[in-house]
Specification:
Pseudouridine synthase; 8 helices; 21% helix; Structural Genomics Hypothetical 15.5 Kd Protein In mrcA-pckA Intergenic Region, Chain A; three-stranded antiparallel sheet; 25% strand; alpha+beta
Length: 334
């Protein structure tokens, strides 16, 4: 483990400010969340003592920091794979991830992940935390995923994510007919008894999901979703909490029910749709170097389009449904 030593004096005029906030200002190449973790891990001393992130500082104090340098992702080895690159420049990379591809190695998925593929595509990503991957998509969620290619870009974009300045917009199909759009502001934490699942729980982490109705079918609803936060399974958990789980969700939708009167085409499509009907369609962010607004769209994958066609009982309707924008009305609160 490599330690890069810093010895910084708290500048005048910062009396009473939080330590993690001041250090983030003094070390602009590192995010506040990363600095907070260093403090919690005991890598920061303030006038020789071990502080807390919330410790209030005084001008003239000395902070000594043993910064843990990002290590190569030794748990992920490069593996050549086909990647759908939507955008790339010297600072950022955006991938259209297919359903079925795991993002990071983990239990049960030691290899064959997007991270392995990225390390083969751009080996320098090994020097960044999580190979530059800034947010997650579940294995069976398709769509756009943002990757930083440099540490300054990573820090900038992490801060934008924390400040909710990056738009992540999804398309989903829910079970049941929803009456209107709204906001779900309910905390999420690990399920009390089923540890592979998440649940709405008092005392969980803040989770805010905005949703809008795009189209209603006889027994299902096509919705657009935007996230303020990025909790594990957030959209899936929040929609299930509203009793409108995502079609095909193996964890949160329960037993498959074919609606009465469903056409043979719809019945077959629902039986064959074996993943959550969730696609990360739009990603909009400010470029960390140029300041340009980057606004990207990923087309719906073939299985999602087939689901919409079966619900609408019309292949021709899918193109119209896919192009529907985020409705700015429907501002009900849930």
């Amino acid at each position: 483990m490599t330690l890069v030593q810093h010895r910084l004096q708290i500048p005048p005029g910062r009396d009473g400010h939080r330590l993690d906030q001041v250090l983030a200002e003094l070390l602009p190449d590192h995010s506040r969340s990363r600095i907070k973790q260093w403090i919690l891990d005991g890598h920061v001393r303030l006038d020789g003592t071990l502080p807390e992130p919330r410790t209030r500082v005084l001008g003239g104090q000395w902070a000594e920091i043993g910064i843990v340098a990002p290590e190569p992702a030794d748990s992920a080895q490069p593996e050549a794979m086909a990647l759908s690159v939507v955008h790339e420049d010297d600072a950022v990379l955006v991938i259209d991830k297919p359903a079925g591809l795991v993002v990071h190695p983990g239990a049960g998925n030691p290899a064959g992940t997007l991270q392995n593929g990225l390390l083969a595509y751009r080996p320098a990503l090994a020097e960044l935390p999580r190979s530059g991957i800034l947010h997650r998509l579940d294995k069976d969620t398709s769509g756009l995923l943002l990757v930083a290619k440099t540490l300054p870009a990573h820090t900038h974009l992490v801060r934008d994510l924390e400040a909710r300045r990056i738009t992540r917009e999804y398309r989903a199909v829910c079970v049941g007919t929803m009456t209107g759009g709204g906001v779900v502001d309910e905390p999420i934490s690990r399920h009390r008894s089923q540890r592979t699942k998440m649940a709405v729980e008092p005392g969980g982490r803040e989770a805010v999901t905005h949703y809008r109705v795009l189209a209603r079918f006889a027994h299902h609803t096509f919705i657009a979703v935007r996230l303020d936060t990025g909790r594990t399974h957030q959209i899936r958990v929040h929609m299930a909490h509203l009793r409108h789980p995502l079609v095909g969700d193996p964890a949160y939708s329960g037993r498959l029910i074919i609606p009465a009167g469903a056409s043979p085409r719809l019945a077959d499509t629902l039986r064959g749709f074996r993943r959550q009907a969730l696609h990360a369609r739009r990603l909009c962010f400010v470029h960390p170097v140029s300041g340009e607004t980057i606004d990207l769209l990923a087309p719906l994958p073939a299985d999602f389009r087939a689901l919409l066609a079966a619900l609408a009982d019309s292949d021709a309707a899918v193109d119209r449904l896919e192009k529907l924008p985020w409705p700015e009305h429907q501002r009900h609160s849930i």
